[in-house]
Structures are given as C-alpha cells and as structure tokens.
Amino acid sequence: MNAPDSSFAAPTEPHVMQTYGRLPIALSHGEGAWVWDTAGRRYLDGLGGIAVNTLGHNHPKLVAALRDQVGKLIHTSNYYHVPLQEQLAAKLCALSGLTNVFFCNSGLEANEAALKIARKYGHDRGNANPEVIVFEKAFHGRSIATLSATGNPKVQAGFGPLVPGFVRVPLNDIEALRQALAAHPDVTAIFLETIQGEGGINPARIDFLKDLRKLCDEHDLLLMLDEVQCGIGRTGKWFAHQWAGIVPDVMPLAKGLGSGVPIGAVVCGDKAAKVFGPGNHGTTFGGNPLAMRAGVETLAVMETDGLLANAATVGAELKAAIEHGLAGLPGVVEVRGQGLMLGIELDRPCGVLLTQAMEAGLLLSVTADKVIRLVPPLILTSAEAAEIAARLVPLVKAFLAAPASAP
Ligand SMILES: *Cc1c(COP(=O)(O)O)cnc(C)c1O
User: What is the H or E stretch that residue 287 is in?
Assistant: First the structure.
C-alpha cells in the first residue's frame, strides 16, 4: 500500500492561478477504481474525479475508442454535421423519454443553456421578465448566471451584481413553492438538482418531484432538473428523477457523461425542444467528435457491463457498511444518498478528513463543510466498496473522538 517512508510534499506551481485548495499530491495513472501518485502511492478512488470517471481509469474499451477517434477527427466545428452528435442524442433521448439534445462542454454551460431556454420560453409567450424558481443550497455552476442560481453565498461572494430573475425557496417545501408561484406570476420554470450534490447530498423527495411535475403542467412551466452530478446511472437508474416516475422538460447533464472527457448536454422534451432556433445558441467546442465518442462509448459500456445494477447494488453495500461501521456513534447526523452518490453528514465541519483519508489511501470529498461525499466510479466492485468503508470508518471514529479543534 502506501510507502511508509515517503512524505507528502506539495508540488510547487507558481504559474497556475490559485483557485483551488489542493491536496499535496499529483496523480500519475490509474486502473479501474485505483490511482497512483507520482511518488508511487496507491489510492482507492472514492471521488471519481467528482462523479466524472464513470468507467473508472484506463478502461480498455474507452481507451480503444478514444484512440481510434483521435486518429480520425477530434474537432470540426458545428459548420458541418457531426454524425456522432445524432448517435449520442438519440441514445440520450431513448434513455430519458425526451426528444432533443444540445451539446456543450461542461455542467455550467448546460445550465446556462437551460436558463436561456427558460427565459425564451417566457418571451415566446409575451412575458418580457421571465423568472426562474431555484432552491436553497443549490449548486448550478460558477458562471455569472449559474452562480446567481446557486444557493451558496460563498460561491456568490465578490461577484455581484447577481443576475436578476431568480426566486429562491427551500427544497422539499411544496407550500413555500406554491406561495412563491402566487407572488411571482412571471415565473416560467422551476430549476433544481434532483439530488443536490455540492449542497450536501440532499435528495428532492419523490412526492415533492411528483408535485412539481403537476404544478408545472398546471401552470405551463418548464420543469428543469439539473442532473449534472446525479444523472448517468449514478443512483442506479439512468437519471435520478426516474425513481419518481416523472419526466422533466429540460435536463442538463455533464459530469459522468464522457467518463472524463469534457462534455455537457441539455436534453429537452416537446415543451422545450423547439424554444431555440437557428442563431439562438451555440458553442465552438460543443458536440465535437472526441467528446461525442466518449459519450457514446460510456453509455454503451454502462449497458453491456450492467453498471446501473452495479451502482445500485454496490452503492447499497457501501451505504450499509458505513451505516454499520458508524452505528450509534454520536456526531454522525445521517448517512444518505442513493446508489454511488452517498453523503455522511457529521455534526461538525470535517474538511480535515480529506487529508487524513488521502494519507490512508482513500480519495473522497467533503462538501457543505460537514458532509463526507462518496461518488466513486460506477465500475466499483463489492470488495472495493468494503475497502472504502474499512478505510473510512476508523478515520471518522477517530475524528469524532478527538477534542474539537479551534475553527
Ligand atoms: C458540478 C456541477 C455543476 C457545474 O458543472 P461544471 O462542469 O463544473 O461547470 C452544475 N450543476 C451540478 C449539479 C453540479 O454538480
């Protein structure tokens, strides 16, 4: 496992802009759910590049497909037809029950497109000031519009004035939502993560999602579900809202769709699919052949290798192992989430666990200050899930037993 004699020393990077609080390692290569750092230490990847590396690292089929594609075309521009776009779009529509896809390059871009659709949907109906309902603790990205839609004041601090046109309500509170709708007749869309990721793994309840679908139908609003993090098989269904048996009008996707190759997509149903016409939206890189091939191959491998079922089963095992390991421990507020999107909420900020886990050969994240987040590759095995729990549980126990450190 980890070489005992090598100490962790941060590589210096005086020319990279200092926007991230980084751990003092650099990774050099990976295999499945394992990665190695430049000093040769091995880590079990409970983070999956933040819910991105669906197929893990160095997946033989993905690597072969990408090698093949790089030797043909990487990029052509959208001046021309890109047949792989139709191939991936058709697949996403078949899996979601929606009808049309716009491709971009990241999560915030997918959300920007969704917000533009929400506004134009209003304008097309004679509403010159369309508003969008968003939620407390939401995260939708870090562009000016998407950070305005985000519910975390830390993400917004220093970047005002915020984009107007957002009405914020608490999650899972249908009464508050009804009141907001009554007070804001210009609302054209309801925009939420089916399971909040950065906000601390907070699921929208099934009954709440069903109520939202009903309200959107009654009021002619767009239901826009940000599945950038929780979509693409992570919860054990292709899309997290499918657990509620509903279909959204607009669904931004990104993270897991390309298994690590940057990609974003907005998948739309009938109500939203024709809102954009020629000239309304575009991107230079979006839908390039390399990213499309990554998406096509990721979905194909997920199907042939049964990764939805794997995410459900191994995720349930991982959750059970953590619940069992932490049972009755004061300081553990809740273990929640679905499939391989799990959060362990503690009663105190626990960012220090990032470094401790790394030292124990485990990669994970801490979000919303107090929530340990596990979003590993969907190829995770039962044995690897057991190993994540075996490495994590003692760390949490020791952390909670230690006297609280000064903030
Ligand atoms: C990560 C994330 C985004 C932003 O995606 P980027 O690719 O970082 O721009 C948006 N929404 C959700 C739910 C996310 O988890």
Answer: none
CA of 307 to the centre of ligand 1 (A): 22
Do 121 and 267 have their domain in common?
yes
For the question of residue 139 being annotated catalytic, the response is yes
Catalytic residue among 37, 45, 226, 249: 226
| Residue 198 alpha carbon, nearest atom of ligand 1 | 15
Query: Could you confirm whether 226 is annotated as catalytic?
Result: yes
Cβ(343)–Cβ(365) below 8 Å: no
pLDDT tens, N- to C-terminus, the chain (407 residues)? 444 446 788 778 999 999 999 999 999 999 999 999 999 999 999 999 999 999 999 999 999 999 999 999 999 999 999 999 999 999 999 999 999 999 999 999 999 999 999 999 999 999 999 999 999 999 999 999 999 999 999 999 999 999 999 999 999 999 999 999 999 999 999 999 999 999 999 999 999 999 999 999 999 999 999 999 999 999 999 999 999 999 999 999 999 999 999 999 999 999 999 999 999 999 999 999 999 999 999 999 999 999 999 999 999 999 999 999 999 999 999 999 999 999 999 999 999 999 999 999 999 999 999 999 999 999 999 999 999 999 999 999 999 999 865 44
In sequence order, what DSSP letters do the residues of 71-135 get, joined into one string?
TT-S---TTS--HHHHHHHHHHHHHHT--EEEEESSHHHHHHHHHHHHHHHHHTTT-SS-EEEEE
- Are 223 and 372 members of one domain? no
Catalytic residue among 102, 103, 135, 139: 139
Residue of 255, 271, 285, 319 marked active site: 255
The letter for the amino acid at 272 is A
The number of distinct structural domains making up the chain is 2
CA of 365 to the centre of ligand 1 (A): 15
Q: How far is the CA of 324 from the centre of ligand 1 (A)?
A: 31
Is 255 tagged catalytic?
yes
Do 223 and 363 have their domain in common? Answer: no
Strand-strand pairing, 187-193 and 195-196 = unpaired
Place of tokens 């139908």: 217
**Ligand 1 atom 11: the closest Cα is on which residue?**
140
117 lies in which domain range?
82-304
Q: How many CA atoms lie within 13 A of 186 on its CB side?
A: 13
Instruction: Tell whether 258 and 330 lie within a shared domain.
Output: no
Q: How far is CA 270 from CA 101, 152, 331, in A?
A: 11, 32, 47
Among residues 304, 339, 366, which one ends one of the domains? 304
123 CA → ligand 1 middle, Å: 27
Q: Which residues are annotated as a binding site for pyridoxal 5'-phosphate?
A: 139, 226-229, 284
